[in-house]
Amino acid sequence: MQVVELKAHPRLLNGTRGAKDERAKSLIPCVMYGGKSTQHFSVEPTEIKNLVYTPEFKIGLLNTQDGPIKVFIKNIQFHPVSDAISHIDFMELVPGKEVQVEVPVKLEGYSVGVKAGGKLIQRIRKIKIKSTPENLVNQIGADITNIEVGGVMRIRDIVLPKGVRSIADGAIPVANVSVTRALKEEEKTAAAAAKGAPAKAAPAKAAPAAKAAPAAAPKK
């Protein structure tokens, strides 16, 4: 499991006024829930980038005055104009206590349907799971090797890692292999050729043998 280290800067004031003061110092105001008590602090924008702007799910190791605490991002607020991060809600990871997170889905393998000329379409990019901190993963792998043309892989078809369970609807499609236009044209051409092919001629019957001429009468 990938971990990103963060330094927690103590906040003197909480609430809207305190958050504004932290932003004025080029810091991002944060709140952490899930532990013994709610904690307010700030983090450096440069440090948080590796936790926010990443294709994989990662946890943070928050270095506080009371020691390191493992956390994950629960919610992020962005500035409506600049799109800069304006506030972050963290959840503390308590050993043995299940948490609900959303992790990316990575398609693995080479589909037999694609080999046959089909087109692979990934339907979802993330999946909601439940797990204890000890069993959290950066991403969920989905083996698409056996998806044929016209076939679908659903959430219930994914083999999840030990200690991880999906809380999403198992019928939701993860990926499918569709029939491409080129493959359709190829099938039409093949069907038309098979339909228009001349039937095999029946073997010709042998001509009947000619009758022998009658023998000449003997001379007297």
Give an overview of the whole structure.
With 220 residues, this protein is an alpha+beta fold. The protein folds into 2 domains: 3-94, Ribosomal Protein L25, Chain P (Beta Barrel), CATH 2.40.240; 100-192, Ribosomal protein L25, C-terminal domain (RNA Polymerase Alpha Subunit, Chain A, domain 2). Helix content is 17%, strand content 36%. The protein is built from 4 helices and 14 strands. It has helices spanning 15-24, 45-52, 112-115, 181-196, and strands at 3-7, 9-10, 28-33, 39-43, 59-64, 67-78, 85-92, 99-108, 119-122, 126-131, 140-143, 152-154, 165-166, 173-178. A hairpin with a 6-residue loop joins strand 6 (67-78) and strand 7 (85-92). The longest helix has 16 residues, at 181-196.
Structural features:
Ribosomal Protein L25, Chain P; 220 residues; elongated; RNA Polymerase Alpha Subunit, Chain A, domain 2; single chain; 17% helix; alpha+beta; 2 domains; 4 helices; seven-stranded mixed sheet
